[in-house]
Amino acid sequence: MKRIKVWDKEFENSLNYSDIQHAIRQIAEKMKVDFEGKETLFICILNGAFMFAAELMKEVELNDSEISFLKLSSYSGIGSTGDVKELIGVNEVIAGRTIVILEDIVDTGQTVKEVYDQLYKKGAKEVKIATLLFKPDALKVNINIDYIGIVIPNDFIVGFGLDYNRRGRNLKDIYTLVKE
User: Fold this and answer.
1) What is the pTM of this model?
2) Which terminus of the chain, N or C, has fewer Cβ atoms within 10 Å?
3) pLDDT digits over 30-58, tens only?
4) Residue 117 lies in a domain
């Protein structure tokens, strides 16, 4: 397995780009059926989900859909702070619409739960959650995730949009922190 170093930490390849692409295509196929004929607004949670959202939107091929971006912050180093801060918000109309939250990873679930609740408060007709990666062992809130690409262990990872102190997002594959 290939190893890389990001800052002071060593990571080992755990998911290849082809596996990631396969998971995204499977999510897209389900979404094509579920959202056909619905005016859907996809909301990409920045920064991490930008690569997932870009790849997914190419595969979904829904003519009645839009995409917007919401920038949040809840991580410091290799752990969640538990405090979700909105840095840039969504400007599109939410009321009466079908909304799909696009997340790179759901671990504690606190970030996506906060966004989910806020979208319903703004009058969304329905809110769905799609995540490329899901860590069920880390989940701390009760929330339904409608589209899950890959279930992974509760390890710290980088690559494909995920970072360690702002580095590693550009990697095509996903790498797991090597335990020392």
Assistant:
1) 0.91
2) C
3) 999 999 999 999 999 999 999 999 999 99
4) yes
